[in-house]
Specification:
The chain is an alpha/beta fold. The chain has two domains: 216 residues, Spore Coat Polysaccharide Biosynthesis Protein SpsA, Chain A; 95 residues. The protein has twelve helices and eleven strands. Strands 1, 2, 3, 4, 5, 6, 7, 8 and 11 form a nine-stranded mixed sheet that branches. Helix 9 packs parallel to helix 12. The chain starts with 8 loop residues before the first strand and ends with a helix.
């Protein structure tokens, strides 16, 4: 914190190839109207193009610090960034996303409220060329006015609808001290496809979420990303189930009906995942990530919270998903 009381914000960029997109992201960080910030770049690239692109920026901007990973860390690069962060507040910036110029300034004030554990906002989907894309369920506005959303309300919404409206790592500002587990961990377990939401659940266990209705970041979706990769999608069968189950340890999904609703919605999501995996010939991945066992366990839990007729219908539906393998 400076002598004027302005907290230092660490903007953390886990870089991976694509220097052209990274440069756009970096320029959006440098354009911030919030003055007390550092930019930490941890480079997980497979070549030297990112390092070469950064040379003039490192010479010009003393608040940029660059680290080249000795070996590829993949999702653990997020935690490598945190290790190098000096800021009281942290905001990731994925290398292919970008910030609105007022993002940090508008968000930082909300963390003066002691019961707010994270600050998020509406975000805009963009394609590989930066053109806006229409909203999907995960990016639809949670509110048309800036507000504080109670932690149980927001967490339950995410879990019951099997969706992450809080946002990707780029979207959220939080206090470094509030992160008691590594990024991507929840109750001691590591998450990969939904490492961001696992971290937001960790923070929501400590406090509420401030939501800003204006778009303060852009989330780029293009064909080179992991969300279209079977190795990222198929593990979501087990990881979403684990997140739903373990969230009850923090007082989320308190009622059996809410818990059952979350399981049913995830079971329907599993139907799509398994169908995609079978069509793509990914039977080995289904075995590796225990899709069969997880779907069967969800069917049992759904049945325990249902009437006999409802239980029969849900168990039969889950069995059909398994049979499609």
């Amino acid at each position: 914190m400076t002598s004027t009381g302005t907290p230092l914000v660490s903007i953390l960029i886990p870089a991976y190839n694509e220097p052209d997109l990274l440069e756009i992201a970096l320029q959006s960080a440098l354009a911030q109207t919030y003055s007390n910030m550092e930019i930490v770049i941890c480079d997980d690239s497979t070549d030297d193009r990112v390092e070469e692109m950064l040379v003039p920026y490192l010479a010009k901007h003393a608040n940029i610090r660059y680290f080249r990973n000795e070996k590829q860390l993949r999702e653990d690069n997020f935690n490598r960034c945190i290790e190098h962060a000096n800021g009281e507040y942290i905001n990731f910036l994925c290398h292919d996303d970008r910030f609105h110029p007022d993002k940090i300034r508008r968000m930082a004030g909300w963390l003066n409220l002691p019961d707010v554990a994270l600050v998020t906002s509406y975000r805009q989907r963009i394609d590989g060329f930066g053109n806006p894309l229409p909203d999907i369920a995960a990016t639809s506005r949670l509110s048309w006015v800036d507000t504080v959303i109670p932690n149980t309300v927001l967490a339950d919404h995410c879990l019951k609808h099997v969706v992450n409206p809080i946002g990707e790592p780029t979207t959220v500002l939080f206090r470094k001290r509030d992160l008691k587990e590594p990024f991507g961990y929840y109750h001691g377990k590591k998450y990969v496809p939904i490492n961001d939401l696992a971290t937001w659940m960790q923070l929501l266990s400590k406090g509420h979420a401030a939501y800003i209705a204006d778009p303060l970041s852009s989330f780029r979706q293009h064909g080179g990303q992991g969300q279209f990769n079977a190795n990222m999608i198929i593990p979501a069968v087990e990881q979403w189930y684990r997140l739903i189950r373990d969230s009850r340890l923090d007082g989320f999904l308190r009622s059996d009906e809410d818990f059952r609703t979350a399981l049913i919605h995830h079971r329907h999501q599993c139907d799509w995942i398994v169908r995609m995996a079978v069509d793509g010939g990914h039977h080995e991945l289904l075995e590796r990530y225990r899709a069969n066992d997880v779907i069967g366990e969800m069917a049992r839990l759904i049945g325990e919270a249902s009437s006999d007729d409802e239980a029969d219908a849900e168990i039969e539906g889950a069995a059909e998903v398994v049979r499609r393998r």
